[in-house]
Structure formats: C-alpha cells, structure tokens
Amino acid sequence: LYDIMVRRAELAGSAGGARAASAELPFRMEAGRLAMRLGRADEAASAFERSLAIEAQGASAVEAQTALETLYETAERWADLADLLGRRIDAEGEGADTLDIHVRLARILSERLSNRERAIAHLAWVLRVAPDRDDAIGLLEGFLDEPDSIGAAADLLDPVYVRQGNWAKLVALDERRRSFIESPERRTMWTRRIARIYEEQVEDLDKAFEWYAKVFEESPTDGDAQDQLLRLAPKLGRWKELAGILGDYLDQELSDDPPVLEVVRLAAVISDEHVGDRDHARKYYRRLMDAQP
Fold first, then answer.
1. Which of 7, 56, 136, 174 could form a disulfide with 126 if both were Cys (CB 3.0 to 4.6 A apart)?
2. 215 and 191 in contact (C-beta within 8 Å)?
3. Greatest CA separation found in the chain?
4. Do 290 and 255 form a contact (C-beta atoms < 8 A)?
C-alpha cells in the first residue's frame, strides 16, 4: 500500500503546476503516515518534507511539521530540526504563541549544535515577551561558565535579577563576570558594584567593607575606595583591619608619589588615633617626613 501511495503521488505531481501539487498532497501525506507505521523513518521524512514544500500552512502542514519534529528528534537530525523550528517561527510570526518554540530551539542550538550565540538570540526574544520565564532563565544560567557566552547571557540575566530583587544571584552573577575579565579597570568596576549591592540592597555592611577592600587592592590610589573604607570602618569597629589593609599595600609600594603618600598619611592617622599602634604610626610619619623635599 505504501508503494501504491508513493506511485500515485508521483503521477499526480508529474503534470506540474499548482493543481497537480494540490492533487499530490493527500497521497504524500498518506505515504508519510504509512511509512511511519512501517518504521521506515527516512521514507516518512521524505514524504512529509515534500508535503510541507507543497503546503506550508493549514492542517496538512501542521501534521507534517509535527511528524517531522518527531522523526528528526528520534534520528538526532538536530540541524534539520533546528531549521524546521526556525521555519515554524517564521510561519507563525513573533507572537507569544511561539515562546515554547523559541525555548525549544534555543535548547537544541546550545546543547546539540553548540551554537550558543544563536541560542542566546532566541532567549533574548523570549525574555522581552516573558521576562520571568523560568526555562529561558535556566538555560541562560547554564551559559555563565563559558567564556564565549557569559557576557551576553549575563547582560540578559542582570535586569531579571534586579527586577526580582534577587540580590544573591545578582552578586553571584557579577562575581562570575568579574572572574572572566582581564581588564583591570573593568574588573574594578564590577568589584565596586558588588560592594555597593551588599551595602545598599543586601544591607550587609561587613560584606560591603570586604568588597571595598578588594576595590582598594585593585586600585589603591582610588580616593573613592579609601573614602568608603573610612566611612564603614567606624560603623563596624574595623579600624585595625583597615590599618592592616593599608599596611599590606604600603609594604609593597615604596614610591613617594603623591597618591601613595596620601595612603601613608591615612595609615599613620589610623594607626595613631584609632588603633593605638604607635610603632606603625611612627614608621608612617617618618616615611612622610623623609618624602619631604
């Protein structure tokens, strides 16, 4: 019976033209159904592919599309399945009804075809329409360990976490971003942001102090980092720790440049007035005097 359907389809379509194609369609569809029942996957796929070429919309097209998705997935024909889903999105338009297709296609692109760039583009569209869609967010979170995709994935997740008030995830996101950055200036930018989130959103001043200390370590002559540490130290009773942070830097930095000498002055005052460490205070005051012209 299958062979008869194929022959009748060929005969119906042999005349050419739209009317011939319309006459061919039901035979192709039936041939596809029979091939699937017989377990002849390749023949079934060929029949349904031809059916879609004849009619891209309508009930037959929906049946052919559904059958091909099953056939391609079973045969692990991931590139063909991705192309099919992409054409389905084009046919159905960029409405909310295509959200599931976008997510499914993104998963195939990332997990089966290693094309994270295209996957992220589909997920970006999903989040524009449905900003809190969990499966799209979960896929993006899976890209955060990859150097080639963390930037784009993090840019999409950032506003999601801010809107949700999920500060723990936002901090973790910024820490991960920071770990992949080679530029000292950009790295410090994220370090400063983490410190600010801990202070302003999480309201954990101890964590904020620790991260402002990292800002100082990365940019010791940055006046803002020094100011933040000076502001938080008395609130937390962490003068001794701040003196140690400044001292560790000054043990390594021996120049007499004005920004460095300002750190020496701070270390002297903190050691003298807030820690009561006269030995270190004298050392720093002496260094200031020796630097005078």
1. 136
2. yes
3. 104
4. no
Q: What span, in angstroms and rounded, lies between the C-alpha atoms of 5 and 21?
A: 15
Unique residue bearing structure tokens 């830097």 = 249
Give the CA distances from residue 150 to residues 142, 182, 236, in Å, rounded to whole numbers and listed in that order: 9, 14, 35
Ranges of H-type helices in the chain:
2-13, 17-37, 41-54, 59-74, 78-92, 99-111, 116-129, 134-141, 150-164, 167-180, 184-197, 205-218, 223-236, 239-252, 258-269, 278-290
Burial of residue 254, with CB atoms counted within 10 A of its CB: 0-12 exposed, 13-18 middle, 19 or more buried: exposed
pLDDT in tens, 15-54: 666 677 788 888 888 999 999 999 999 999 999 999 999 8
Rg of the Cα atoms in the chain: 32
In the numeric block, which tokens belong to residue 125?
């569209």
Which residue bears the tokens 């630097």? 291
Does residue 40 come out as left (phi exceeding 0), alpha (psi in the -120 to 50 range) or beta?
beta
DSSP helix/strand/coil, 163: helix
Please tell me the distance from the alpha carbon of residue 170 to that of residue 154, in angstroms, as a whole number: 9
- The pTM of the full predicted model, rounded to 2 decimals, is 0.82
206 Rama class: left (phi>0) / alpha (psi -120 to 50) / beta: alpha
Query: Tell me, what amino acid is at 265?
Result: R
Measured in degrees and rounded to the nearest 5, phi and psi for residue 142 equal -70, -15
Residue closest to 265 by CA, chosen among 237, 240, 243: 243
